[in-house]
Amino acid sequence: MVKATRKPLEEIFGMVKGFERVLVVGCGGCTSVCLAGGQREVLALADELAECARNARVPQQYACFVTERQCNREFLEDIEERVENCDCLLSLACGAGAGLLADVYAAVPVFPALNTMFLGADLDVGLYEERCRTCGQCVLGDTGGICPVTRCSKGSLNGPCGGTQQDGSCELGDGIHCAWNDIYDRLKGQGRVESMMVIRPPMDWMEKGPRTLVQRGFEGRYAKKPAGMPQPRQEREGAAARMPPGAAADKARLP
Description:
Blueprint (H helix, E strand, L loop, with lengths): L1 E5 L2 H8 L4 E7 L2 H4 L5 H17 L5 E7 L5 H4 L3 H5 L3 E5 L2 H10 L5 E3 L1 E6 L28 H4 L27 H12 L56 H6 L3
Parallel strand pairs: 2-3, 2-4, 4-5
Antiparallel strand pairs: 1-6
């Protein structure tokens, strides 16, 4: 099952403050179970954002809806009429759900309110298409809901490589689309091409071992770690302090 955590309030408000009518869309699936994107979290976030808007003297209206699952196209039909009356969508689903929401309503900007952190076990068999690499640094708001880490064959974060073909395909062939060509087309249709000009540092894929997420609001409950419980994952800025001797130098030599 997908595990996610909410982005900082300031980051979320920064993404939506230029839009007057915002529809906050939760998910009754994984992010609801992990206490990040259910009805309670959707209503709480809408209230906090409305307070931010009042303080910033920004005229905004927030509406809320929780789909049964955002990663299922059938359930996204439930919000069609609501989407017609909003200027942007704020998704409290995982990266796969936010990405599918952006695909279904491609003419409307979709912004992720959550960072998808990692996956748990789901013991079932089916056919799936990967949409999210659970990097913990979601950029879908700047890339039109198309994940460059997952969809680009090279995981390029800052635009296409030199292998993009004239027809928008990837140099690897086999009918693979160039993710950044698709990102450009999506953003152009939304009038937001400038969003793809944000330059981002390389992803940190260094192995950190099994990760544990303590959800916002539950820090006090797990302040004293029971015996055998993994240490909760700290912010990336504190990662260097936990490295064994020599690890920082090894990290610096990684490509």
